[in-house]
Design a protein that fits this description.
The chain is α+β, with helices and mostly antiparallel strands. The protein contains 2 helices and 3 strands. The mean pLDDT is about 95.
């Protein structure tokens, strides 16, 4: 089994965009997959994949202040912008 860790803690934000301060528009993501299968030397198999994802901020419906953002929230935004197919491809 492979466990995936999505790190979306690095973002780019507009300082001010209309009524919103620090509006996140770009996410720098890193996904690490770690297998529960061990190599002959006893270490784990793992792989990293990284990139950026632009977010569509043209129609913000639920603004979350920058200081309230968590990695989980930004991961959800990132994966939503990518779509299931791209997420599956990255994890593959």
């Amino acid at each position: 089994m492979i466990t995936y860790d999505w790190n979306c803690r690095t973002v780019d934000a507009y300082p001010q965009d209309g009524e919103y301060a620090d509006l996140v528009y770009n996410v720098h993501w890193r996904v690490t997959g770690v297998s529960d299968e061990l190599k002959p030397n006893g270490t784990t198999y793992y792989a990293d994949n990284f990139g950026t994802q632009v977010l569509d901020v043209s129609h913000v419906t639920e603004f979350i202040p920058f200081e309230d953002l968590t990695n989980e929230i930004v991961v959800a935004w990132t994966q939503g912008a990518m779509g299931e197919e791209q997420v599956a491809s990255i994890e593959a």
